[in-house]
Every structure is written in structure tokens, then in C-alpha cells.
Amino acid sequence: MRKVLVSLAVSSALGLPVLGQLVDPGSNGIVKRTALNATAVAVAGTDYQLPIAAGTGIVLAGGVTVSYDTAVMLTQAMAQAGTPFKCTDAGGSGTTYSCVMWPALVSYTDKQMVIFTPNTACAGGLTTLNINGLGAKQIYKTDGATNPSANDCRAGLPALLLYNASLNGGNGGFQIASALTNSLSPLSVGNAIASAATIAPTAPLTHITGTTQITTITVPTQFAQSGFGGCLRLIPDGAWATGTTGNIALASTAAVSKVLEMCYDNATAKWYPSY
Predict the structure, then answer these.
(1) Alpha-helix runs per DSSP H in the chain
(2) Which of 45, 133, 198, 211 has a CA positioned 20 to 30 A from the CA of residue 226?
């Protein structure tokens, strides 16, 4: 077998790699040709582009090494902690609340979910929430029309809010979807109402005074949806009775201090008393 020795000059003339001219690309693993038989480390983003789209949550951390961007990408740990949805009040007055969400909210979006934890219980009446300085938006009961009553939200207890872009004349607002708590659910107590032929309680728990017969109970908006209904609890402070000439299905006599539950069925448009 014959041995063939090729000089450096001949190697250069033939276009073959010359010892010492191949650089070590390191962890990058990619080199570029800069001249005849000359190479250098290829730079990501300058000499080549990885097939990574902006906004996907994946970012270059150097060379071809990638990492995820938690400002865009949701991790399992973040989902379990509810991180993207947490809105903890910065110290509201009971009617004016604000919070900072992370990642920073850039706009309000229809049907957006927010886990709102107030620092102060709702005082009742017109109530607003401002997230990340995007502007104060009103908070409504589940009907999307009624202002919260006192204690509809409680200090330190999280509540689920849903943003509805059509509320408040198209200016948008939040609806209270539910209370997220493992403790006993509190009931808002409304102002006492005098018994009359027609009464209109708006709170889930209401004292009824007097002795006049009640024949009609005005149906709250949130009960009057097709296929829905709801229940009210009336606390009799007087010996009033119910009649059936209106929308109450059964005549009964209230016992003072014994709670009478009235449940409405939208299908029959009737209230059904518990006794």
C-alpha cells in the first residue's frame, strides 16, 4: 500500500480542510463557512433562524438552547395555583377595588375569568374593580344588572367574577359567578319589608313585618329565565298569610320567627311555600 502525503499548500489548492481551521462550535453545534477552508461559530438569530414563532412562550436562551416564557406559557404548577386568574384587592373601600394580575392584564376580554379576593367586604351599592390600571368596571350580581348587596363579597374570601363586555351599556362589567370558599355560604339579609298584597324581596333572606295577606311576590330577574327558578327565605315578624289569587301556589299562614322558604318555578310561574 502506498502512502500519500498531501502538503498544506496542496490541501489549500484542492479546497480541502486544513488542520486548525475548523473551530469548535461548543454547545451550539453549528458552524458557518466564512471563506475558503475557514469556519466560525454560527450565531442564532443572525446566521440562522430557529422555527420558533413569536408569542408561543418559547425563547432563545443562547445558541440552540430554548426555555419557556412564563409571561406567555402556562405551566402545570401555575395552573394548579390559579396564578393567571388571581386578583387580590390592594385595599379597597368596600365599593372601590383594585388589583394587579400576573402576567399583567393588557385588556379586558369578554368571558374573562377572575378570582377576586377583596380586602374589605362589599358595602353594597355601586361597586367597581380596576385591574392593572385598565379602568374601573362595575361589579354586578349574577343577573348582570343589580349592584351588589352588603356582604355579597366578604373580606379574604375569593369569589369568581366573569367579565361581560355587553354590561353597563356596552362599557363592560363583572358578574359575580360564585363564591369560592369551603366555609358555610353566607346569605345577604335585605331590609325588612311590610307585608302587602305584592312584595318584592331582593335579598335571599328577608324579614317580613305586618299581618296583611300576601298574594304576589315579584320575581327577581335572575329567577325569571327559561328553565330556571330559585328560592327566597322569608322571616315572619308578624302573623301574615299567603293567598293564591296571585302567583303563590299554596295558601299558608306564617308562624312568627319560623322561616318560610318560597321557591319559584319559572315553568309554572308560581311560588311554592315550604309550609
Answers:
(1) 8-14, 76-81, 167-170
(2) 198
The answer to whether the CB of 122 falls within 8 A of the CB of 157 is no
In this structure, what are the phi and psi dihedrals at residue 141, rounded to the nearest 5 degrees?
Answer: -65, -175
Q: Which of 234, 222, 223 is nearest to 194 (CA)?
A: 234
* Alpha-carbon span 186 to 150, nearest angstrom: 11
Q: Are 150 and 121 in contact (CB under 8 A)?
A: yes
Please compute Rg for the chain using Cα positions. 34
Please give the Cα distance from 83 to 115 (Å, whole number). Answer: 10
- Helix or strand run (H / E) with residue 219: none
pTM assigned to the model:
0.49
Chain centroid to Cα 53, Å, comes to 28
The pLDDT of residue 102 is 82
Q: Are 83 and 111 in contact (CB under 8 A)?
A: no
Q: Identify the CA nearest to 131 among candidates 162, 153, 105, 112.
A: 105
In this predicted model, what pLDDT tens digit does every residue of 92-108 receive, in sequence order? 789 999 999 988 889 99
